[in-house]
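---------- Forwarded message ----------

FYI, see the N-acetylneuraminate synthase record below. Original note from H. follows.
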Amino acid sequence: MENSNKVFIIAEAGVNHNGSVEIAHKMIDEAKSAGADCIKFQVFNTEALVSRDAPTAQYQKEKTGETEQYSMLKALELKKEEILCLKKHCENIGIEFLATPFDLESVEFLSPLVSRFKIGSGDITNFPLLELVAKKGKPVILSTGMASLGEIEDAFWLLAQHLPLDYITLLHCVSIYPTPPELVNLNVIHTLKTLFKTSIGFSDHSIGINMAIAAVAIGATVIEKHFTLDKKLKGPDHNASVDPVELKMLIKAVKEVEVALGNGLKCISDAEAEIKRVVRRGLYARRDIKAGQTLNAGDIIPLRPEKGIPSRFFNKVLGLKSNTDIKQGTPLEWWMLRPLRS
């Protein structure tokens, strides 16, 4: 991504518009209102995507009642002129338009409309599509659900033949809708970052917002989250999506974590230094000390605030002699002791 210090948040509309361009327009407004950087749709020609008798996945069958992918997807397909209107809407309100192409014709159609491409997990082994996308010379975000490390590596280096490495972002993803927490496996983010030395994000299909927030905390620079206007709508992905209120909560939390991660340098801030002055301890006389007296542990006590000799020098002060009378409660100074210390 262009700025790896900022988390790029994709509000994944996907096909949660249910084939209605009116709903799609409402989703754009909600994504913008929530603070998303980008809203993403899916663009496909059903005939170029599935065979007529391709069965639906079990979760799709349960949520739509459809037994064949063709009829399900055909009802969710947006027309090109509708997509152009969605792109214009995004431009007008200031949110990035993004779409996943599922066939070569859709790649060509989308190329002048998008500043980057997003490729779904199902096409990580679709090398003709990956190669065409890469040849467009734009940044690519690639989801890695259902893929082995070897398949991810093959896809990554195919893209890298045509693109600079910093143009490629990999998204850890588990293609289960919804994904239970025990299968999210967020530590794969570390694995991918170590192996590929590129920007790593998270495409989240879990319920709620916790997994996405945790992903940012361990280094994800892109978050993609399905959202819907209403989880009760009929459709394959509504159940594993967040609603507009949750999307706004997610984005607020991500931005807080983003700031909280800081720069990794351990230093004392000005605000912390003010607290330090009153809670750190210095060495004080526990009781009256006479000139020439050798100090022992019963003569000194670490107290707040830190004045004079810091408490970390407690053991160094033991056995020294006092140069002067010191009253109980007086902060000890090096000049009061013999030999003098700087």
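H. also flagged this: The two ends are 52 Å apart (CA to CA).
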